[in-house]
């Protein structure tokens, strides 16, 4: 316990050289700024900048959150993939709105994205599944995501069989694998500052598809 509290108290954030951010020169839409910050984070040595939190709500309106990989960000929105039969997949089917959270401590930057979530076509899901590694295909082939697991041994057997199948049948499909696209209606960029003069720039999409920008108090 003491170790925990001592460690917790010893930790700092924004204790390093952070990049400058000039909201006045930010683009009129959030996507190019997201892509610019993403590349800058990767180049600054940020570990796994393509991991993000995905928040959804359950049928009772209670929030849920987990980490996912970002599979793309383009004019359609922010892309991720998972099993439609998982907890998140069922939550998204019932309440198709979600939020994404990125934190890139190497640069003291946070990006929040809120939007409606739509599913891609089966062809897009198939392409997504096969654009990645054998391990990713094997993981998807295991299936049953979010179901209770009886024992670790059961997982080991299912995973071994899935790896074997992924190697022998690289074109195998996984019916539940789904590509999701979060169509953003709000994107916020946060630039941390050592003197705590953090800058927050929020983009909101109007009904005609144009974006407005506001600064927010930190
Ligand atoms: C770094 C990291 C990346 C992950 N990427 C994915 C992913 O892209 N898709 C996915 O379904 N689960 C991914 N997971 C697992 C999820 O966090 C989660 O455990 C799983 O999707 C089940 O969530 P659910 O029960 O809320 O549906 C990842 C976990 C970590 C730690």
From TrEMBL:
Residues 177-218 form the Pyridoxine 5'-phosphate oxidase dimerisation C-terminal domain. InterPro entries: Pyridox_Oxase (IPR000659), Pyridox_Oxase_N (IPR011576), Pyridoxamine_oxidase_dimer_C (IPR019576), Split_barrel_FMN-bd (IPR012349). Pfam families: PNP_phzG_C (PF10590), PNPOx_N (PF01243). Keywords: Flavoprotein, FMN, Oxidoreductase. Residues 46-151 form the Pyridoxamine 5'-phosphate oxidase N-terminal domain. The keyword Nucleotide-binding does not apply. It comes from the Bacteria. Its cofactor is FMN. This is Pyridoxal 5'-phosphate synthase.
